[in-house]
């Protein structure tokens, strides 16, 4: 084997996003032990800073030692006991994944479907939950930012629906929103949320930040049987991250160094400024896309700023365009999944990757490729339109 | 938060071991996507090289996206269906953990205990397995290298016992042996083995290499119900690592860069030379320890080379000695766990940390501290005795 040198890339896919060079430097620091007093301080810093990004006071706010999907599994495997009813809102791949995990955990699944590319009608959720006459659903699970479609589901709407179901816990997937959109865990009284490091936090993949409300912690304590997963059992994991510092499993040291640095960068930028950066780059992106005569999949009020889905125009080869972007420009974007395969492109503008230069480079590259492929563009002014959205004057 | 600068350490605990600087450099390389053609090549390299370290031809040989305990859980959660009988050999913390996981997976546990600090009597294992009259145990699980005690259990002995139980799958924990001892997966017909990256592979913690025999893969295919864990379900994970390249979860990119470089270092050193280095440093360590008048916990034929357990002499404070080692010398070692708490020190000589200089530095430091604490040493010649074991002439 030769030494590996990764090719030059701009990561505008559904994640990972580009990591800030400072995060990569932090990754490469010398190892110390997972029970070293200095590492315990790193863990404290991470917990404090994660609370701020999640906008919560929840004591139990930690990174799970796995990627975002491990965080999803941690949520369900800890909260569900066999026979519990769990309502899952499904409007994309990650809602489907939740539904799959519920049944693996022995839960009784109540599916609430919406079309891929759309959000949910509050009336439909309320109606579905009302089907349960005697015992309400233990959990309502929803994906805040559906990475497979680019749809944002407003948590204020979900909380409003749940005012009729006060005993139901609210479980939220924030994988593609945390750090790019406000998540307002406490404001929306979310009981369990999980995310991933490789999206708007711009840290390499490998950890899944979670936060658990006191009410959900209480539900965990009341469990009658052991959590089916040893690795993700929060009753033990929290003892390592809490005051006890009891060894559970060896924490991924380097990844925690990286997460700490990524959180430090967010602290420096400021959360609200960061959300606004994501919003502005998204709006400029849309302006450029529409100037070309292309269409966004999602209607404007439900669009994620972090993950933009563009309809592939008729007659244009998905694979060819993505290969050209990668090979000629070093730009990675994602294709569609499931029913949207071949129908959309997924363009992530997350964390470090959410930058004016990337928006302009991408729009230019796409315009060049589509033009060469013979697609008749509405205008050649994608970059100009984006620049106008940024407020540029010439 | 300030920038984090880890303190200077020599990691001689039960893991993580020190990472080779080349591995840390690999960690900090720029990210590429988990479906990037260049990353798929990294995955191929890792699989090929892991097969060589595991000494196997098993096609399904991959790193799981979690630490060693995630590998342990992957083994059981994939192989067990509710009601299956699983025999677990328990002689330390990691055998206990296996037993715990078996019941969480719905397995029926058959415990085979041995004293902590000792290996197993083959007759006792045979006798225990014979208790099952009609259906043999589906799995016999054993810890090759028990990190909590420093005991090596010979896999040749286990395979010999299993000659009477041809239908029982052999599951082996190689967390603290892989890369430091021969594991001989194919030679001993091991059906499922898992390890961790942060021990003798000297890569940061965060991945768990596993290998699965064709016979065990067949058992996975015959499952009647879905694997209880979505994250660790090998029927899906293997499609990402195999020819399909189907997206499952986002692989921890940077950790895979690091693992590839750690495996490249092993390739360069040569497996047998590497085992021999671990053996020589272990023997010199023991020579030094015994010269001081201290005792090893484990009898010589069952001692791990990678993890050395030393009895704490009467009247000596465990905590004080470990604190002095850390604060004055920057040396981390581990304390005892469970019934061995306060009774032993665990000194890891793994991977990059298994080095003559570390053996000599540690022996000198321990001698200084014990002398200051008033412990009457047999001789002051720990370093000299170790040097003699290395064949030094003066």
Q: How many helical stretches of chain A?
A: 13
Distance between the termini of chain A: 51 Å
Mean pLDDT over the full residue set of chain A = 97
Order of helices and strands of chain A: EHHEHEHEHEEEHEEEHHHHEHEEEHH
Strand content of chain A: 5-15%
Oligomer: homodimer
Shape of chain A: globular
Q: Can you tell me the CATH class of the largest domain in chain A?
A: Alpha Beta
The largest sheet of chain A has its strands arranged as 2-10-9-8-5-3-4
Q: Give the largest interface pair and sizes.
A: A-B, 75 and 75 residues
Helicity level of chain A, as a percent range?
25-40%
The number of distinct β-strands of chain A equals 14
CATH-wise, what's the superfamily of the largest domain in chain A?
Answer: Type I PLP-dependent aspartate aminotransferase-like (Major domain)
Largest β sheet strand count, sense and barrel closure of chain A: 7 strands, mixed
> What is the domain tally of chain A?
2
**CATH topological fold name of the largest domain in chain A:** Aspartate Aminotransferase, domain 2
- Residue windows where pLDDT falls under 50 for at least 5 positions of chain A: none
Cα gyration radius of chain A (Å): 21 Å
Which structural class is indicated by helix and strand composition of chain A? alpha/beta
